[in-house]
Design a protein that fits this description.
This protein is of the alpha/beta class and about 190 residues long. Helix content is about 20%, strand content about 30%.
Length: about 190
């Protein structure tokens, strides 16, 4: 069985979206370089980000997301992102009407059922869990082996420590760990 990694791009203050559920500049790092990250060439990153991200993406067999992320992305048009084989959607609702039942998306009720399906589909490959509500549930259930974060230089919080008001603030590039353009890649093992 492969490892389970909860992964997300986050603001410096730990948010995965702003107060309006928008990602703003969180993913600017995915267009701030000249090295194509996938075969489409649509995503271009720095060499440092490529060297970190591509091998990780190549290990992922399944991504687990909540229904909210699925709905926000419109299910990535029925094609899993980043060349991943399958997406498991944790949802109390069935697949959307008109959804292609042959698309490699699996809708399950509850994180335990979703993780069992994800691990079955992934085999010895990595199960990636998107952060957020579902990621928190999977972490709380003790099913996460690692937490990976791509920290973007922006503050989203309701009132940042530096400004005391509810606004977005862009920061300069980070300068420690694995530094890419507009991102700092971090990874932590979960203490058991």
């Amino acid at each position: 069985m492969g490892k389970v990694v909860m992964d997300s791009t986050v603001s410096v203050d730990g948010f995965i979206a702003d107060a309006n559920d928008q990602v703003g500049p969180l993913f600017d790092w995915m267009s701030s370089g000249d090295v194509p990250l996938d075969e489409t060439g649509d995503v271009k990153v720095s060499q440092a980000s490529y060297d970190y991200t591509r091998p990780y993406w190549d290990q992922i067999g399944v991504t687990v997301v909540g229904r909210h992320v699925f709905d926000l992305t419109d299910g990535w048009g029925g094609k899993p992102p980043g060349g991943i084989d399958h997406v498991v959607v944790v949802s109390h609702r069935p697949m959307p009407e008109g959804w292609d039942p042959e698309a490699p998306f699996h809708f399950l009720d509850g994180v335990e059922a979703a993780m069992a399906k994800a691990q079955q589909l992934a085999g010895d490959r990595t199960v990636e869990v998107a952060a957020g509500d579902v990621g928190g549930q999977v972490l709380a259930a003790g099913l996460v082996d690692e937490v990976a974060m791509d920290v973007a230089p922006v503050v989203f919080g309701p009132a940042s420590a530096t400004s005391g008001r509810s606004t977005q603030h862009l920061l300069e590039d980070p300068d420690v760990v694995i530094r890419g353009n507009r991102v700092l890649h971090l990874r932590y093992r979960v203490r058991r």
